Amino acid sequence: MKHRIIGICCLFLLQATASLGQSLLSVRTAVEIALENNYAVRLSQNNLLIAKENVTHGNAGMLPSVTANLTQNNSVQNSRQVQSNGEERSLDNAKNNNLTYGVSLGWTVFDGLGMFTRYERLQEMEKLGDAELKRTMLTTIADVITQYYMIVEQENLLSAMDSNIIISQERLRTAENRYSIGKASKLEVLNVQVNLNSDVSTRLRQVEVVKNMKTNLNSLMARDLDEPFHVDRLVSIDEGLVYDDLLDKAKQLNPDLQLIMINKRLAELDLKNIKASRYPVVRVNSGYNFSRSESSLGFVSSSNARGLNYGVTASMNIFDGFNQRRNERVAKRQIDQVALQFEQQQLFIKTSIKTAYETYLTNLQLTKLEDKNEAIARQNLDITLAKYTIGSISAVEFRDAQENFINAVSRSNAARLQAKLTEIQLKELIGQLEL
């Protein structure tokens, strides 16, 4: 049995030695690594860069297009021609060559101001990409902080389990001493040994929980999943959140509301672009071409030409099967749709803030209460251990004190975590999640 105790102590010693090589990972550092490496953030950054690249006057159709053209046609034919005076001419394998090349320019100078609408739409798409990036970053920050403090909670619980096992080891030593002098039965020693084994088994499960959570945090940071680290076990809670201030900030900063407002502007620009189809499209065309042709049979054996051509093309939709009117109606419905989505999202955010704030206040009260309960349970455990050592209480009573202590620690950690998580949720809802 002594070998069993020594083995448990060696296990703790090995784990403590292994933990010495782990670096301390602060929550700020974890967020910085995630914002740099997280794939969702990087994808959103690429989408924003693409949107920025698309904001050009040429993409909106405001600039002319210049093209170079070259056409070469050749033919070999057996030709037979009858002139108007009845003379007949024929030639086998008659060759005909025609070469044309030059530069042409086309420029739409008026399309119902649609080109300006399209340019403004490209600018709004850039704003949309920026808002989506901010939302992705906000979500990533919230996920990292949440996972970080969940690890803190579980490591605090693991620490309490370590203390509990040390106490169980002391119980076992005391029970063995009492048994050796005839003041305790063998049954009491066996029960204490079973309790110790149960504590060690529970601790192993808890170690697994902590490892899996650290793996998930490494995944959020997009780094080696086996990267070891320690967390700062101190959890500070912002107790100064005010409901009305949260609502005001949410109206201004909530990323989902900002996205809907941009989508509303895009819907308005789509309607404006559709209405531009009611106006004529005026296009200027120009070019400078060179041409040369050769013919083995005909009145002209060869010819060359070059020169400038220019002109104006105007077109206007007169009737398209009422599609213009239908498209405008659909675009107006889409604007109404986005307006309804905005009102719906406002109600959702207000409801979420209301419920989360009530939970936040409750968790703050529970945190203070459970901290007191933990202190009481710890004091009760110390007293119970002293009484058990001198044999004034039974092993069962002492075990109850142990379990009460672990439960008090677990509730205290859970209350503190829930208070922190509701704080994070509220700050994520208002779009202002500072570290």
What class would the helix/strand composition place it in? Answer: alpha+beta
The third-level CATH topology is: Outer membrane efflux proteins (OEP)
Distance between the termini: 49 Å
Major pleated sheet: 4 strands, antiparallel
Number of helices: 9
H/E element string?
HEHHEEHHEHHEEHH
State mean pLDDT (0 to 100 scale): 88
Count of DSSP E strands? Answer: 6
Per CATH, the class reads Mainly Alpha
- Rg (C-alpha, Å): 40 Å
Q: Can you identify the CATH superfamily? A: Outer membrane efflux proteins (OEP)
CATH architecture: Up-down Bundle
In the sheet with the most strands, the strands line up as 2-3-5-6
Q: What share of residues is helical?
A: 55-70%
Counting structural domains, the number is 1
Q: Low-confidence segments, ≥5 residues, pLDDT <50?
A: 1-14
List keywords for this structure.
435 residues, Outer membrane efflux proteins (OEP), disordered N terminus
Description:
This protein is α+β, with helices and mostly antiparallel strands. The chain has one domain (2-37, 111-280, 316-430): Outer membrane efflux proteins (OEP) (Up-down Bundle), CATH 1.20.1600.10. The protein has helices at 2-20, 27-37, 39-54, 114-180, 186-220, 243-253, 255-275, 323-390, 395-430, and strands at residues 23-25, 65-82, 88-110, 229-231, 281-295, 302-315. The protein has a four-stranded antiparallel sheet with strand order 2-3-5-6, with no helix packed on it. The chain has a two-stranded parallel ribbon with strand order 1-4. Strand 2 and strand 3 (88-110) form a beta hairpin. Helix 2 packs across helix 4 (114-180) and helix 4 (114-180) runs antiparallel to helix 5. The radius of gyration is 40 Å and the shape is elongated. The two termini are 49 Å apart. The model is unreliable at 1-14 (pLDDT under 50).
